[in-house]
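Predict the assembly for these two chains.
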Amino acid sequence: MDVLKAISERSSYRGSYKDTPVSKEDLRAIMEAGLAAPSGCNTQTTSLIAVNDPDLLAHIRQLTQSPMLETAPAVICVLTQRLIAYRDRSFYVQDYAAAIENMLLAAVGLGYQSCWIEGQITDRDAIGRKIADLLDVPDEYEMVCILPVGIAADSVKKAKKKPFSQRAWFNGFKTV
Amino acid sequence: MDVLKAISERSSYRGSYKDTPVSKEDLRAIMEAGLAAPSGCNTQTTSLIAVNDPDLLAHIRQLTQSPMLETAPAVICVLTQRLIAYRDRSFYVQDYAAAIENMLLAAVGLGYQSCWIEGQITDRDAIGRKIADLLDVPDEYEMVCILPVGIAADSVKKAKKKPFSQRAWFNGFKTV
């Protein structure tokens, strides 16, 4: 799929998934897309774990109670390390966000849907740490996001957005 | 260009650019790609300004002193507003990072190169604010990144990265 088409077709899918499995090859291709994202001073702060084992998936569903994960045949868990790029600056959030966006686009390109689930994972109840423990993730990594991956069973809807003229301009800010 | 190819070919280009202009249509297509990125609770915290006016570009070059901007025939400036998505949480960094990654991929898809220039813009000397003032950007927006856009005049090199097995796993963390 053309890159501009993938970018415009990507949406945050919150429906059910078909029970068709996602092949290991496709999960790997999506993760490779994530790892291909840039990172501040090439610190490569982002790591990934794909989960398609049914028992682990059931446990993750139980921990998150997220309807977006209920029927997904696979998920990709996003881990970060807050490594310093230079002086006192870390760009770990930018790094994992770029990696996530690459994975969302790769998923669309391969015929899947997904959704960026972050707030729920990193909120006060620390669900991310519980899932990390389930997957034997060492303490120096934080789990910050889960992406369901699967073929949509429901219709795919796009978020409504402000018009271009309210968010983008040429050669200077224009009054919104 | 296929989305997976664009993802794997994208690199942080630090060479010179040809003096071929970037058409307004292409700059708009790249910005539309940026605005198509998801944002936390659809807050749409990211805004963009493309600059191809020679006088403004010269002024931006003078302010940044960045070799990466020296020959670029156009730049895209990335603005953010730290809007709350829910409770006390804002995802503005994730939002603009996803938008930037989309724009880098769109640029590659359209035959251009670019580079994510952020640290230099948001460091202690506040160059971002100076460029924002030049472009009449109100105080409630922060300028966080500049993307040069143009056709590469030099060879395009890719950053060396850790192997997949050190950053991604299936069904559980594996000792690196």
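The CA atoms of residues 66 and 120 of chain A lie 8 Å apart. Chain A has one domain: 3-166.
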